[in-house]
Amino acid sequence: MEQQSNAPSTVLTAGSAADAQQDFKVALVLLAVAVALLVHTLGFPMSGSYGGVDNQWFVSPALFPLLVCGLLVICSGMLLYKATRKQGFRGFGELRGWLGDWRNERIKDRWYVIGLLLVYVYVYIPSTDFYLASVVFLLSLTSRFYYPMVNGLSRSSTLHLVLALCLIAVKLNVNVSEDTHWLSINYDEDAIRYSDLSMLMALMCLLTLSVCFPQNKDRKRAVIQVLVVLLVPLLLVCTFNFLLYVPMPVEYGTVSDFLNYLVYDVLAFQ
Amino acid sequence: MKKIILPALIMASVIATLAHAARPYPVRPITNTVVWSAGGGTDAVNRMIMAEMAKVLDTRINVVNKTGGIAGSIGMNSVLSKRPDGYNLVGISSSNVVAAVNGGWNERFDVWSPFIVGSSPDVISVNTDSPITSLQDLVAHQAQSQQAYKAGAGGTGGIHHLYLLELARVSGVDFQFVPYPGSAPSQTAAITGEVDVVITSMAEQAQLIRGGKLRPLAMLHPEPFELEGVGTIPSAFGLYPELAEHLPLSQAIGFAVHQNAPDDVKTKLGKAFEAAMQSPVVKQWARDNYYQLSGKHGEAARDEFAALESYFTWTLQGLGSNKFSPDKFGIPKP
Amino acid sequence: MLEQFSHFFSTLFALATSPTNLLVVFGASFVGIIFGSMPGLTATLGIALLTSLTYGFGPDVALLALLGLYVGAIYGGSYPAILINIPGTPAAAATALDGYPLTQKGQAGRALGLTTTASFIGTLIGLLFLVTLSPFIASMALQFTSWEFFLLALFGIVISGTLTSPGTVLKGWIAGLIGLFLATIGRDSLQYFPRYTAGFSELDAGLEIVPVLIGAFGIPQVIRVLSERRSLAEAPKLGRILPELSAITRNIKHIFRSSTIGVGVGSVPGIGEDIAGWVSYSTAKNASTPEQQKEFGKGSEAAIVSSETANNACIGGALIPLLTLGIPGSPPAAMLLGALLLHGITPGPSIEVDHPNFLLEVTAIMVLASFAMWANGMLLAKQVVKLLTIPAPLFIPVVGILCILGGYALGLSIFNLYILIPVGIAAYFLGEMDFPIAPMVIGLVLGGMADESLRRALMLSEGSFLPMFERPVAVILLVIIGCFIVNQIPAVRTRTTSFWAGLFSRLARKSPVV
């Protein structure tokens, strides 16, 4: 946020036109969302008795949301008006204006990081061992930004797509119960083993690709990358699990299970 | 590096699946997941009893808090889906029994095998500036003023709210219930004069009564209460014997283990629990904090929770604030 | 009085001369700083963990450890805020606004030196209030009924308009409104009606603030630094970290104002260090001359000093209602109450009867804890700055994992992550379009209180707004809010600032020694 203000404001006129176009879009989206919420909120109970508390307009659960949504409609309307006056509606239909220019490396990287965050949190963490998931996540980022590999973006994206589909398939097909949802945490130990195995295979693929096909060969960087990627998540998992008593999301994941066994049953750590 | 770690991981998966229960329970530290927030009554009771039980069991017991959902449903759900091996306990109170009827989860409370540490009796109080000095005054005063009392208590459907409803039913006093996020804010509201009367437990209120901020009217408990420096607080049961129909519900606080846990684990936990309840530390703590110790576990504790579940859910059904009828879960009427 | 003084110093002396005690307090303060500096590990969680660990110790040692950790954690949150623009705790969110720009200028060391000393002074001033004015402040805090809570929340929301640069005021308001909307998600606490939960029972309790905070500040930073191939800072000058005493004396008026605000906010039950930081930041901005105001958001000394002094002064404030009334003034103080109960100490009006001089003992412990924090800070800061020499493409992915693990660790809930990521991505895009993020966080923090207090107040008054104008504290708050709103109208703003500037210059001429 703040660094924006530090950016040199060259080509002021061109920038402000692009800004107005962006403002126009975001204002329109906000307006649509705010109006939808306002309509939804009107369905809240305005009077009557609920849970033993008498309800009148001033106690209604809709009072505050209506106020907030109403103000949001007004504010985004004002933003829309300002943007329209600066010709912000131009270029509204172009997809590039919404998603960014795909030929730009920075935009590609942006969507790559966002995509990785999404699969990591919504697919990997709830279905597999946290250590394995984190190593894959970390390696995918470092093999793009720290020690880049050849064709990294397309290779890594394909790998993650296959892996994510694989994990979802495992979760929805192995020993499913009625409560199973693709977002819920894996507790079924068979499903966890299958998922961990897929994760391990993906990890090995990625590791091989990154070590064997770098853009610029640099032995030192390769070693640092492998060490950081394998050891830092281990350190984090051990710290949280054994010192802060934070059980990992998938508690019976292969590595977590092994670490628990090693530390408590074998080493008898108390 | 890779050469060492990868085979180790594969070996790990083999060993981890094979190796369990080599030595007798408890080999590992036990995790107790308290479903109410850190610093509250259930949390304090659990931390204290766990520390004592850890000495007996000769292992470490970690107390973590996992709040949220409906009546602690998130914490209970997560513990329920873990291995029923006795390494995962859940810290609960009687307020958790309404989780099912409010849509938090699909279980009856008998999935747990509870251990009840104790409870603190409820007391109804007013601000010290109030002209009201007794329960009789409360009734008489309203007959004159014809105005409903604003009554503060923590959350809708909580135990203090139900006490208020019971009292309103037998005494005929008109209360306007004002919900607060917890007992502490409702007490503060009574001190600032925002509400006229407040119902919370003695454990929560004793300091304010002794400090002259609140004036106790009556105990909502069959026995009067002797409070050091204040004197005897009479029981509302003397004035309204009908209260005994449903009350005393105890505000049961304790912990539970999965009902499917192996019997030897339950026995071992039960023994440790009994030993901990006998320790002078726990007794002193209960005296200092105005708790009445219970010590029920096994069948007795299950019965108590079943009774609480039945009373709570059906009372809320009467108020129309349930999402599902208790019938759906086969909860009998009280 | 004299007797109390001698008791205070004898307690302090006894504590400070025992090597075990010193070890405990330094260790706890160190752990606290680590907790504070890890996004997602909060002071509350730290105290909760330490409560179980210190169960076996005597109450003195346990208190040393707990308060040492508390003070350390509130201070430690400023480290990542300054170094990587991700506040470690909600309390440090305001510090990031000006701390990170300093890092970008290569002055991370100076910023850390400033916060260390400011936090230290803030804690001590908070204590001074605790000892001298606690009965008075406690009685003031008891003037807070639903109306005052509502107005306080409204005040916090109004100040969010001052946290933005003049060009983006409208966007600041929109961000604030989005935050307020996020606060209404969940079952409302008065009628238990589910609002915008889409059937997820995880949403019933509302959004957790810490995951949203991590999402709003941490995730955009991860995306931005990686995709723009940006380095985190100018090569930091690894000189000595100094206490920055001259900067402190320069900003002495900010320090005094901020400590008062910190104590005041802390003593009101239910709100804590995070709000203290924001309120103090914007008050400092409002009280500055137009030239100084331009510095805010670009690495202003006054801004860092204000927010850090206030959040640490808040500790003393939060202890006032805790020790005198048994009502915790902030979330970590609520946990502290649990810990005290566990050790057989029941804070409340009768504590002076049960445990004579307990207040003085706590103060002595706190003095020791703040010294430990200061010493730890001075030693640690230099090492911490070195983190910036790690290449960003290696360091930031690890920060990303830490953010996610931290968001999960709070409440052990994976649902927190499902909230954290969308909030983070939305915050990233909003940030790209010049929307300030801070008002959104303030809106979320205060929205619930505003909503619930307003409706409860109306419920008690049966729909009438009149009681708001009949209560003294409420009227004071109303006047302050009015001043802030009026001050945001440009014409009035230039006039008031010129008035103050004229007044100050006249005063300065009369008394050359400042």
Tell me the domain tally of chain B. 2
Low-confidence stretches of chain A: 1-14
SSE arrangement of chain B, N to C: HEHEHEEEHEHEHEHEEEHEHHEH
Radius of gyration of chain B: 22 Å
Domains counted in the coordinates of chain A: how many?
2
Number of strands of chain A: 2
Oligomer: heterotrimer
CATH H-tier superfamily of the largest domain in chain B: Bordetella uptake gene, domain 1
Q: At the first level of CATH, what is the class of the largest domain in chain B?
A: Alpha Beta
Query: Given the structure, what is the number of helices of chain B?
Result: 11
Mean pLDDT of chain B: 85
Description:
The complex is a heterotrimer of chains A (about 270), B (about 325) and C (about 525). Chain A is mainly alpha-helical and about 270 residues long. In chain A, about 70% of the residues lie in helices and about 0% in strands. Chain A has 2 domains: about 15-100; about 110-265, no CATH class. Chain A is built from 10 helices and 2 strands; from the N terminus they run ααββαααααααα. Chain A has a two-stranded antiparallel sheet. Chain A is extended, with a radius of gyration of 25 Å. The two termini of chain A are about 45 Å apart. In chain B, helix 2 packs across helix 9. In chain B, the strands form 3 sheets. Chain B has a 6-stranded mixed sheet with strand order 2-1-3-12-4-13, with helices on both faces. Chain B has a 5-stranded mixed sheet with strand order 7-6-8-5-9, sandwiched between helices. Chain C is about 75% helix and about 0% strand. In chain C, a hairpin with a 6-residue loop joins strand 1 and strand 2. Chains in contact: A-B, A-C, B-C. At the A-C interface, helix 1, helix 2, helix 3, helix 5 and helix 6 of A face helix 6, helix 9, helix 10, helix 19 and helix 20 of C.
Topology of this protein?
The complex is a heterotrimer of chains A (270), B (334) and C (514).
Chain A lengths: L1 H5 L5 H30 L6 E3 L2 E3 L7 H23 L9 H5 L5 H23 L2 H16 L6 H22 L15 H24 L6 H25 L10 H13 L4
Antiparallel strand pairs in A: 1-2
Chain B lengths: L1 H17 L11 E5 L6 H17 L3 E5 L7 H8 L7 E6 L18 E8 L2 E6 L7 H11 L3 E6 L4 H13 L3 E6 L2 H10 L4 E5 H9 L3 E6 L5 E3 L3 E3 L2 H4 L13 E6 L4 H16 L1 H9 L3 E2 L5 H21 L15
Chain C lengths: L1 H15 L2 H19 L5 H11 L5 H18 L1 H7 L8 H12 L3 H34 L4 H14 L9 H16 L1 E2 L6 E2 L13 H19 L17 H6 L1 H16 L5 H15 L2 H6 L5 H25 L5 H12 L8 H4 L3 H28 L6 H18 L5 H18 L5 H24 L5 H4 L1 H16 L2 H21 L4
Antiparallel strand pairs in C: 1-2
Helix pairs in contact in C: 1-18, 2-4, 2-18, 3-4, 3-16, 4-15, 4-16, 4-18, 5-6, 5-7, 6-7, 6-15, 7-12, 7-15, 7-18, 8-21, 8-23, 9-21, 10-19, 10-20, 12-13, 12-15, 13-15
